[in-house]
Amino acid sequence: MGPIEARWQTSLTRREALASMAALVAGSPLLAAQRDPRPLSDHRRVPGFAEMESVFDFEPVFLGNVPRAVYDYTAHGAESEFTVQRNRDVFDWVDVVARPAVDPAGVDTRTSILGLSLDYPIFVAPSSGQVALHPDGEVGMHRGATSARTPMIISNVSSQPVDEIVAGAAGPTWFQFYPRQSLAESRKVLEQAQAAGCLAVVVTVDQQATFYERTQHDRNLGGAPRGAVLPLAGVKNPYRVPDRRLWYEWRYFDQIRPFVNVPMLVKGVLTSEDARLSVERGLQGIIVSNHGGRSLDYGPSTLEVLPEIADAVAGRIPVLIDSGFRRGADVLKALALGADAVCFGRAARWALGAFGTPGVQRVLEMIQAELVAAMAASGRPSLADLGRSAVKERFS
Question: What residues are labeled active site?
């Protein structure tokens, strides 16, 4: 055997080389392949309830429990899903500035928003169709949230009636509302929610996208090709946007104000200009939101626009935020950048779909404990200590 043949004998095979290259590419930060953990990838069995250690443990259990279409509806976002990914990437651009640690037992997370006393600055965000996740649906979500001492914002398109959801548990609820062109219909929906006991109305002004590129792709791969996700029949424009969406203007708030006897917030604000207009229009709160990346592709993440919105509001009304939040440390970063509270949507849905009401309680309590731990480790014993100096951001 000559020297060339000897080198062949000890060199990588083609299969080994390709496997090494695949591992390198999969782990590349340029592809963000390891953005969030996927805890079941290396396990031969599904972990049980007692083995859940973080919010991310619930997602694969949820995936295993529900039909793929239900999972897709929760998981995916608008078109290329750039905004879905950016909502998570942005947390890597904010560092927590540590001071000498404090005793977690002394950390105080209590606050008050629009007269509602909170043990933690955390809400369950509104999300639709929860019976598809678990038979207990929104009632089960409300019970889990109440057990975790967390308010729930009920979706306007819930799969159960709002009065049944409110009556399902003793915890406080708000109501999320989609604008309607008919003022009579708007009045009926708003008055029903208030009569049921909802303590505030959240008017959504972005609304989710009408087309989910990856969801459609999955359907085609599954052997059941379909046309547009929503039929174009009756739509009078070429952009796949139904006429019931994106028609409203600021004056709509003035038109529905006589029907609302509780605080009214606007959800979907992403600019300082709209934040100032919200204050001028008499809105009593803002939720900084991009609908979890389901509204506009290639939009900004909510966390990166939060500081300018908080500056524009200047403490005159509370500023809440959602979209992309998964951990207690995520909450800390938002509070430091100007939020008064954080709303969790997908994480709560994972929990309900994975383990029902106990899962919701467990996820929320995990997030609460993580927030306390992060505040203690960074030397911030109260929410008042979470100013801009608590973080260092690299948004530009």
Answer: 291
